[in-house]
Write a structure and sequence with these properties.
The complex is a heterodimer of chains A (41) and B (310). Chain A has 41 residues and is an all-alpha fold. Chain A contains one helix and no strands. Chain A is rod-shaped, with a radius of gyration of 18 Å. Chain A starts with a helix and ends with a helix. Helix content of chain B is 38%, strand content 15%. Chain B has helices at 26-35, 40-89, 91-107, 257-265, 278-290, 292-309, and strands at 112-116, 119-123, 141-147, 163-169, 178-183, 192-197, 204-210, 229-232. In chain B, strand 6 (192-197) and strand 7 form a beta hairpin. Chain B is elongated and about 120 Å long. In chain B, strands 4-5-6-7-3-8 form a six-stranded antiparallel beta sheet, with no helix packed on it. Chain B contains six helices and eight strands, in the order αααββββββββααα. Chain B is α+β, with helices and mostly antiparallel strands and 310 residues long. Classes of the chains: A mainly alpha (41), B alpha+beta (310). Chains A and B meet through helix 1 of A and helix 2, helix 3, strand 1 and strand 2 of B.
């Protein structure tokens, strides 16, 4: 049980980190998209 | 027996699993659980249950983010390919408009808000990310060589168009300076001209034209004078450009004197270049002689030369 809890915590940490990374990537893509759109307008 | 002695209702318990991640000391929680008659294993089950719930929530958010990112990337790529396509089709327009936009963006920092994950954010124009690759801008480049008299030191090539000189510089590879001209129709006309004396033969002026005129050839056209004769350089295509409607013709008047002699006998000079078949030359000559503009220009040139000699 101890192990499964720590595993869960590890998994949660990993997924949270991945989440953060995805959010950052999305921000960058959105910024690029907006830049491109500004360029066209 | 009083029931209140069995159940303690003054502990202010909160068994909300999210509180496990807050500042409540673990021991205190455990004590609370124990005071409710719960053992240690059930507490761990609760904690792991909370973790599982949290994990599920974060994973779902992760999935949603991935989907959004994929969609955003698709949109971005579609927009980018559209822009590239547009730029490929209208290179000149894009060049002039991008310059305008650059100056506008420096004055007015326009930003389009975009909602990401519930948070509103805005971005400023980043010119570098949208810089057009230089290799995609394909401007038409042609080169013309003109023989001048030895005494003539000017860097003027008469081609019928009006030019405005905007610069001159000395290059490393060539001791004679290079002059830069713009078509007088600029900025609407993008054509530029560079003129420099040939390294091999200082009596030959080499004019390099960049771009295409977006206006007709001036009707009061000046034909090359006796001091200037049009010549081509090897592989680069060259147009004599006597008239905008006239077909492109390549003339070689400097390679040998015999060709100049033949010109005096025959209006149509014989072209020695092996790349141009004789049939094509004849076709070009026929179409040229049919062109009234060309004939008028030729008459003007000959009469001008005669007057000059007199």
């Amino acid at each position: 049980e101890e192990e499964s809890t720590s595993d869960l915590e590890e998994e949660l940490k990993r997924v949270t980190a991945e989440n953060k990374k995805l959010s950052e990537m999305l921000s960058v893509v959105c910024e690029n998209y907006n830049t491109l759109r500004n360029h066209l307008m | 027996m009083d029931c209140s002695s069995w159940i303690n209702t003054s502990l202010d318990l909160n068994i909300n699993p999210h509180r496990l991640h807050e500042d409540v000391p673990k021991k205190e929680v455990e004590n609370n659980f124990f005071s409710l008659g719960m053992n240690k294993s059930s507490l761990k089950e609760e904690a792991s249950g909370a973790l599982v719930e949290e994990l599920k929530r974060v994973t779902a958010e992760n999935k949603k983010l991935t989907e959004m990112l994929t969609e955003m990337c698709e949109n971005y790529n579609a927009l980018r390919s559209n822009l590239m396509e547009y730029m490929r089709k209208n290179p000149e327009k894009e060049l002039s408009s991008s310059k305008k936009r650059k100056s506008e963006s420096s004055n007015n920092n326009n930003s389009i808000p975009m909602v990401v994950n519930g948070n509103s954010e805005s971005s400023s124009t980043d010119e570098e990310s949208c810089k057009k690759p230089k290799e995609e801008i394909k401007t038409k480049v042609s080169r013309v060589s003109v023989r001048t008299e030895a005494s003539d030191t000017s860097l003027i090539v008469k081609d019928g168009y009006q030019w405005r000189k905007y610069g001159q510089k000395v290059t490393r590879d060539n001791p004679s300076p290079r002059a830069y001209f713009k078509c007088s129709f600029a900025p609407s006309c993008p054509v530029k001209k560079k003129v420099q004396r040939s390294v091999d033969d200082q009596s030959v002026l080499v004019a390099t034209y960049e771009g295409e005129h977006n206006h007709p050839h001036p009707s009061q056209m000046e034909v090359t004078t006796s001091s200037n004769r049009c010549v081509t350089l090897g592989s680069v295509p060259c147009s004599a450009s006597l008239s905008s409607s006239a077909p492109t013709v390549t003339l070689d008047w400097t390679k040998s004197k015999s060709s100049t002699k033949s010109e005096s006998k025959n209006i149509i000079p014989k072209i020695d270049s092996p790349e141009v078949p004789q049939v094509l030359v004849e076709q070009m000559a026929t179409s040229l002689t049919k062109d009234p503009n060309f004939r008028a220009a030729l008459v003007a040139a000959i009469s001008g030369k005669m007057l000059h000699n007199n």
